[in-house]
Amino acid sequence: MDLATIFGVIAGLVLIIGAMFLGGQLDLFLNVPGLMIVFGGTLAATLITFPLSVVISSFTSAWQVFKSARRDPNQVVKTMIRLTNISRQQGLLALANIKTPNQFLHKAAQLIADGADEELIRNTLRIEIEALKARHAVGQDVFRKMGTYAPAFGMLGTLIGLVQMLQRLADPSSLGPAMAVALLTTFYGSFSSSLFFLPIAGKLKARSDEEVLSLEIIFEGAIGILENNNPLIVYEKLSSFIAPHKRVILTHQALRKL
Asked: 66-75, 86-95, 102-111: lowest mean pLDDT where?
C-alpha cells in the first residue's frame, strides 16, 4: 500500500471537512445540482476528449497507485547483478531459464540467450521503454484534463446559479442563500481538482518515472552483460542511476554471492 497517498487524501479530507464543520453546518455545503454539474460535466468532457477504454484504464491505474508499494531500484540492480553472475558462470544460454513476472526483464534475458546482436537488443528494449512512457503519459493526461475541467464546470455552475439568483431580486431575503448555492459549484470544482485530479496525475507521473528508472537499469544491465559480463563493472554502472544517499553499497564479496 502507498501510505503517503492514503495519508495525504485522508489528511486533506479531515482538514477541509473539519474547517467546514467549525464554520457552520456541514449540510450547508451539500448541493445536489452543483455536484451534478461539476462531476457529471467533468466526466462528460473527459469522455468527449478520450476514448472510454482510455478513461477506464486511467482510473484502474489510479487505483493501483493506492494498492501498490513503491519500487526499489536497488532491488532491480541486485537482480541484474544476479543475472550477470549466472551468465558468467553458466553462459548466456542459461538466461533463457530465468523465471520472472517482469515482462521487460524476461524479454531482455530471452534476447540475450537467443544470441541477438547488441544493436537489435538496444532497439527492441528502447522501443519498449518509449512505448511505456507514451501509455503512461495518456493516463496522466486524463487526470490533468479532469483537473482543468472541474473548476471550469464549477464556474459554469456558479453562472447558472447567478442567473437563477437574479430572477429573485424582488425578494432580497433570498439573495444570500441563493448566492451561497451558486458559489458551491466553484467550491466543488476547486476541491476536486486540487485534492484529487491533479494530485493523482502527479502521483501517476512519479510512479511512471520510478518504473522507467527500473527499465533503464534493466536495459543498461542487459547491455553490460553483453559487453563485459563483469559483476563489479555492471554494478558500478547501474548504481549510478540511484542517488548516493539511497544507494545500497555492495562489496566485492556480496556481488559474487548474489
From this structure: 66-75
Q: Name the CA radius of gyration of the chain, rounded.
A: 26
Cα distances (angstroms) measured from residue 22 to each of 18, 19, 73, 156: 6, 5, 45, 28
pLDDT in tens, 204-233: 999 999 999 999 999 999 998 888 778 888
Find the distance separating the first CA and the last CA of the chain, reported in whole Å. Answer: 28
Cα(180)–Cα(101) distance, integer angstroms = 54
3-state secondary structure the chain: CCHHHHHHHHHHHHHHHHHHHHHCCHHHHCCHHHHHHHHHHHHHHHHHHCCHHHHHHHHHHHHHHHHCCCCCHHHHHHHHHHHHHHHHHHCHHHHHHCCCCCHHHHHHHHHHHCCCCHHHHHHHHHHHHHHHHHHHHHHHHHHHHHHHHHHHHHHHHHHHHHHHHHCCCCCHHHHHHHHHHHHHHHHHHHHHHHHHHHHHHHHHHHHHHHHHHHHHHHHHHHHHHHHCCCHHHHHHHHHHHCCHHHCCCCCHHHHHHC
Least Cα distance to 145 among 187, 201, 189, 190 occurs for 201
Residue 200 in contact with residue 143, Cβ under 8 Å?
yes
Given this model, what pLDDT does residue 238 score? 92
Phi then psi for residue 26, to 5 deg, are -70, -30
Instruction: With cut-offs at 50, 70 and 90, classify the pLDDT of residue 1.
Output: low
Number of other CB atoms surrounding residue 251 within 10 Å: 8
For residue 250, give every residue at least 6 positions away whose Cβ sits within 8 Å of its Cβ, in sequence order, or none.
78, 81, 235, 258
Is the Cβ–Cβ distance between 218 and 104 less than 8 Å?
Answer: yes
The pTM for the full model equals 0.85
